[in-house]
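Lecture notes, unit on binding sites. The following record was shown on slide 14. It pairs a sequence with zinc ion.
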Amino acid sequence: MLVTLLSIATLILVFLIRFNNRIPILMYHRIATVPGERNSLPPEKFKEQLDYLKKHGYNTITLNDLYNHYSLQAPLPPKPVILTFDDGYEDNFLIALPMLKERNMKATVFLIANWVGKENKWENFNHQLTRTMKWEQLQQWKAAGMEIGSHTLEHPFLTQCDEVRLLEELMESKRVLEEKLAVKIEFLCYPYGFFDDKTISTVKQCDYKGALAIFANAPLWKQDMYALPRIPVPSRQPLWEFVIKVSRWHIIFIMLRKLERGVKYLIRK
Ligand SMILES: [Zn+2]
């Protein structure tokens, strides 16, 4: 009995030590009120979340800060959290940027290089028609101290690309964004969160410092800079769930969510 209890206690301790130092990376898309769209977070909810972070002493950091912390042991501020935006919608500039600036916060946007300043027609399924940020707006995004990363050239499923296309998507998007925005592009975000070993080795070949996935298909047990798990912030999420998602226990919440998904999948089968 005592041995069992001690083993369980040791396991819990190992678990806590292992996951206590992970930094939550949140994934946003649009900041807009669009009924029925899971990836469009109403501005008032976004404001509520930023206010929560501010009030509770969280500090937003960039992916470069994260990289420097893990690779060079650079210190981080207390309660660090990373905010990321996928696809570079114009409402990120019009709505989110003023809110971030007002609170002295940082965020990272991932751009689809061939879709900058255009209508969101790469999303050929039931999405509200909108626009992405223009180059001039991105200059202001950068000037405000925000980070910029690549989300490829055309937003394909990278695991379905042949080697030539894969290399082009990763290398050419980096080149175009660096040239147009005079900024170093050092992080990649996998479209739809999909990647495999071939994708990761090409990302490394293209000199990215890291790449972001979604928690559902990223490893959680080890910290991998080329498969960082992100946590989606859906439109209808209550604040208490957001509170857990940014807490130091967020990884446990993610694991439970993953488990829930796995069970649901098995039941459906
Ligand atoms: Zn995307």
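Take-home: Residues 21-268 form a domain with the TIM Barrel fold (CATH 3.20.20.370).
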